[in-house]
Amino acid sequence: MTPATHGERGERERQLRLILPLATLVLGVAIWDLVVRVNGIPPYLLPGPGLVLQTLVSDGTILWDSWLVTLTTTFEGLLLALIGGVGLAILFNQSRILEYALYPYAVILQVTPIVAIAPLLLIYLPQQAAVLACAWIVAFFPVLANTTLGLNSVDHNLSDLFELYGASRLQVLLRLKLPSALPYVLGGVKIAGGLSLIGAVVAEIAAGSAGAGSGLAYRIAESGYRLNIPRMFAALMLLSITGIVIFFALSFLSDLALRRWHESAIRRES
Amino acid sequence: MTDQTAVDGSIVALHDVAKTFTNGTTALDHFNLEVRRGEFLSLLGPSGCGKSTALRLIAGLGAPTRGAIAWSGEGADEGRERSNDIGFVFQEPTLMPWASVHANVALPLSLQGLGASTTTPSVSGALDRVGLTDFAGAYPRELSGGMKMRVSIARALVTSPTLLLMDEPFAALDEITRFKLNNDLLRLWLALGNTIVFVTHSVFESVYLSNRIVVMTSRPGRIFAEIAIKAPYPRDESFRTSAEYAGYCRLTSEALARAIASGEAQ
């Protein structure tokens, strides 16, 4: 096979990977629209896609404000998860005693369903702090677990080399362990981004039934009570799009950080 | 030409050294070895004969279970300060994938807190010696196996060590690359006048490179025989095809076979 046809094939493959999901989306929306129209389903049960889009525009201000609140919580949660996860992993890596004493509780925090913890947190903390705490609890564990794995995945020969040249503990951490762990940390952060959003939404929903609130999830709960289903769909759509954008943004950043050296970020000619 | 067989004095000596690992394996027992200043010494033996262990003990990576390692010459008792005096080359290139070739070679110096302005001349010099000046900005994954090994050698040379320890450095390379690197290594050794301890399981490689071969028995590793290769340096491809080379190879092969047999008899 000549290189030219090879390149064309790659190009076609790329186009397919872009076009096919879009085609599925268009088809899905068309079927949705058709089902609503043909069966005459009322908007308070299932609004058509047109009405959802219209609501997205007409309720734009209210949804935009709520979106900003949820987005802020998500990013704060993610940032704290990054700091907390990497920080704890480094502490665990440096002190076995701390690791043995605390790691099981990090696991317990992770495996206890956040929906069950959220109402408690809302009792003990101010609402915004509770929402942020939920986002953090859900998001920090993948960062912690991945960073721990990364810090322990250092090439033994490189460790020996650092020892041979008399590297200090701090030098080993900063110049060997953390760079080795970077791909793992970034993998954890990619997972944490989506989870932080989920944590924020769960807490907002729990808070929503308690009264005050202003995030997107609160809007969903509120719209549900008022049978304003079109707005519910519009808010839901915004949440999905937010999750997708966060995932791709983090993937992009991760690729950017690793592309010169890590196998995961290197495109191979095949 | 240069008569490198004229070596003077010992640089380090292992006296009745034993090494038992925590899992109960005894890698070395009653192991005596003297490394002489300026020589090219090969440790030859089957897999698991403890030759790598001996090399690591000399490097200070782990302590012997019994016996002593005695350094001679200036600053013999300075302990960890010795790291500047030793270069170590592993079987794998052991490069930091996230760092450029330049940064990898600079590592031994930058770990001592030396800044870029101080290290750059040494790094450039080391890269020049292994013929990789043009690749200073490249990343390890962009290099071939042989080039990665050259970077590893440049890193070991950057501190201008008097003792270079090499643990089967070319074992994973193809034969053509290995021959080339053998020649490069000999040229470097002749130019720098340092001491090299070279661990290998290849009879041919050890005969081609060394002026002394120590043949070891397997588990626990002991010295079985010592063979002096009296062929003059510089050696090149004509040596590889000479009758003298073939003779030394036969001699060494026989010694190795007897060493293995004696190990199995135990």
Q: Could you spell the SSE succession of chain B in H and E letters?
A: EEEHEEHHHEHEHEEHH
Query: How many whole angstroms does the radius of gyration of chain B measure?
Result: 18 Å
User: What share of residues are in beta strands of chain A?
Assistant: under 5%
**CATH H level, superfamily name of chain B:** P-loop containing nucleotide triphosphate hydrolases
Major β-sheet profile of chain B: 6 strands, mixed
- Superfamily (CATH H level) name of the largest domain in chain A: MetI-like
CATH topology name of the largest domain in chain A = MetI-like fold
CATH class of chain B: Alpha Beta
User: Whole-number average pLDDT of chain B?
Assistant: 86
Query: What is the total number of structural domains of chain A?
Result: 2
Low-confidence stretches of chain A: none
- Biggest interface and its residues per chain? A-B, 21 and 22 residues
- Poorly predicted ranges of chain B (pLDDT <50, ≥5 residues)? 1-7
Oligomeric form: heterodimer
Distance separating the two termini of chain A: 12 Å
Structure, described:
The complex is a heterodimer of chains A (270) and B (266). Chain A is mostly helical. Chain A has two domains: 1-40; 50-265, MetI-like (MetI-like fold, Orthogonal Bundle). Chain A has ten helices and no strands. The radius of gyration of chain A is 23 Å and the shape is flat. Chain A starts with a helix and ends in a 12-residue tail after the last helix. In chain A, 37% of the residues are buried. The mean pLDDT of chain A is 88. Chain B has 266 residues and is of the alpha/beta class. Chain B has one domain (10-95, 164-265): P-loop containing nucleotide triphosphate hydrolases (Rossmann fold). Chain B contains eight helices and nine strands. Chain B has helices at 51-59, 101-110, 116-129, 145-157, 175-192, 203-209, 237-240, 243-265, and strands at residues 10-20, 26-36, 40-44, 66-71, 86-89, 163-167, 195-200, 212-216, 223-228. In chain B, the strands form two sheets. In chain B, strands 5-6-7-3-8-9 form a six-stranded mixed beta sheet, with helices on both faces. In chain B, helix 5 (175-192) links the parallel strand 6 (163-167) and strand 7. In chain B, helix 2 packs across helix 3 (116-129). Chain A binds chain B through residues 155, 157-158, 160-167, 171, 175-176, 179, 182, 260-263, 266, and chain B through 56, 59-61, 80, 83, 86, 88, 90, 92, 94, 96-99, 107-108, 111-112, 139-141.
